[in-house]
Amino acid sequence: MIKSIPLWNTSVLPPIFFLSGLDTGIAVLVLLSIFLPAAIDVAGFHLLGTIDIVLIILLLVALFAYVEIMRQSSTTAAASIRLLKTPLFIGGVVIAGLILPLALLIISVSISGIQTIRIIDGITGVLILAGALLLRLSVVTSGLHRPLEL
């Protein structure tokens, strides 16, 4: 843990990056399967979609907990959270990278046409990857150093 940057010095951040890593791994797998049509059938897409729905919900809960814990922990962490909550974070990470893919995955697991599933899951995969990149960028760029104690 990096104690000089309170936004990074929390036990909530590793699970967020772990869940995000699992989520992006599934997104890459789905995107690769678009180019290999025989690799995954409808049941496989539904299974991956269901797992991803659970991961996204867990990630949203962990992200909300992270923001609230940091907002209430110290002055420096609260200032970092104010820097974190930009339109890029809210629009790119939360809405386009998590909520929109969650809605698309719910639609995807409820249909049976393989071509439609591939298109929806392809769009979802791109959104998830972009959202995960923006999540990492937002957390890294919004971390403020704690003032030096004299």
Describe this protein's structure.
This protein has helices at 13-35, 42-73, 75-84, 87-109, 114-142. It contains five helices and no strands. With 150 residues, the protein is mainly α. The radius of gyration is 17 Å and the shape is elongated.
Radius of gyration: 17 Å
Task: State the helicity in percent bands.
Answer: over 70%
Largest sheet entry: none
State the end-to-end distance.
22 Å
How many H/I helices?
Answer: 5
Please give the number of β-strands. 0
Q: Looking at the structure, what is the overall shape?
A: elongated
Strand residue percentage: under 5%
Structural class: mainly alpha
What are the low-pLDDT stretches, counting only 5+ consecutive residues below 50?
A: none
Task: Write the element-wise H/E pattern from the N-terminal end onward.
Answer: HHHHH
Task: Give the averaged pLDDT, no decimals.
Answer: 88
Characteristic terms for this protein:
150 residues, mainly alpha, 5 helices, 78% helix, 0% strand, elongated
Topology:
Blueprint: H1 13-35, H2 42-73, H3 75-84, H4 87-109, H5 114-142
In short:
It is built from 5 helices and no strands.
